[in-house]
Amino acid sequence: MNENTEMQKNPEENFTTVEVDPITGEYYVKIPEWILNDFGWYEGTTVNMEVEGDCIVITEVKGD
Questions:
Q1: Residue 37 carries which DSSP code?
Q2: What pTM did the predictor assign?
Q3: On the CB side of 63, how many CA atoms lie within 13 Å of its CA?
Q4: What pLDDT shows up at residue 15?
Q5: For 6-58, what is each residue's pLDDT tens digit?
Q6: Residue 52's pLDDT is what?
Q7: DSSP three-state, residue 22
């Protein structure tokens, strides 16, 4: 069985699952690679998360 591993840019639905790190017990979600590429984010980019209504808004924290 071949799984399509091609990166989709802005598909209609971007579902992900809340996961738990087995070592730390911390919850996390994976950000799709196409989103990181579009925003120019990389490992170590600092982001801010805010709750607005029933949505989570993630924005990059820009340096001074």
A1: H
A2: 0.66
A3: 2
A4: 83
A5: 555 656 667 889 999 999 999 999 998 888 999 999 999 999 999 999 999 99
A6: 96
A7: coil
Structure tokens at 47: 């982001």
Burial 5-36 (b: 16+ CB within 10 A, else e): eeeeeeeeeeeeeeeeeeeeeeeeeeeeeeee
Token pair for residue 12? 């209609």
Residue 33 to residue 38: CA distance in whole angstroms = 9
β-strands 47-52, 55-60 pairing: antiparallel
Spatial neighbors of 42 by CB under 8 A, at least 6 apart, are: 36
